[in-house]
Amino acid sequence: MKVVGVGCGPGMLTREAIEAIRTAGHIAGSKRAIEIASEYIPEGVRAEVISDYARITHYPPGTVILSTGDPMLAGLGKSASEVVPGISSFQIATARLKIPQESCLIIDAHGKDICSVLDSARLGLGAGRTLFILADPVSDLEAFCVALGGRHGDLRVAVLSDLGYPEESIARGTVACPPKPVTRLYCIIIGTF
């Protein structure tokens, strides 16, 4: 199975990804991933919205599975025989805020209660790392910041929404007074940036 990252928003596909899409015999992915890649899907090639990700290995050989962002950043790449990377929200977020990527600790809170990653967050911050958190649409950032609180209260918090889209926004605050996410598609950076 080939998994192709389509980037975190429009215009974020690599040339390698575009070529993989243009030569695919069958394509499957989320509605958003298919929309991002739509201009490169050849006429007559079926693009199917995946309804059950537990069954992605059941697609016929030659199917290209589209993954938003980069398939190796909390994506579908772990089970693929071949992965074509995409431009991730991590890359865009660190570029927008001018944060060196090597200073970051990536924490995946997608599909989880954000407070379940508190221990990892505290360890990362204790080691002087900047946190990049892939948030879930229902993540409660305020509760997370209250739980994190204490000596971390003055750390900066940025909520980066709709990265790569025309409506992209960055809201800033602190752990003591965190910004509120404005959309369901966002990531969080916490640190001294």
Structural notes for this entry:
By secondary structure, the protein is of the alpha/beta class. It folds into 2 domains: 2-87, Cobalt-precorrin-4 Transmethylase, domain 1; 90-191, Methyltransferase, Cobalt-precorrin-4 Transmethylase, Domain 2, CATH 3.30.950. Helices cover 21% and strands 25% of the residues. It has helices at 15-22, 31-37, 89-97, 118-126, 141-148, and strands spanning 2-5, 26-29, 46-49, 63-67, 82-84, 104-108, 130-134, 156-161, 169-174, 186-191. A 5-stranded parallel sheet has the order 3-2-4-1-5, with helices on one face. Strands 6-7-10-8-9 form a 5-stranded mixed sheet, sandwiched between helices. The chain is elongated. The model has no long low-confidence stretch (mean pLDDT 94).
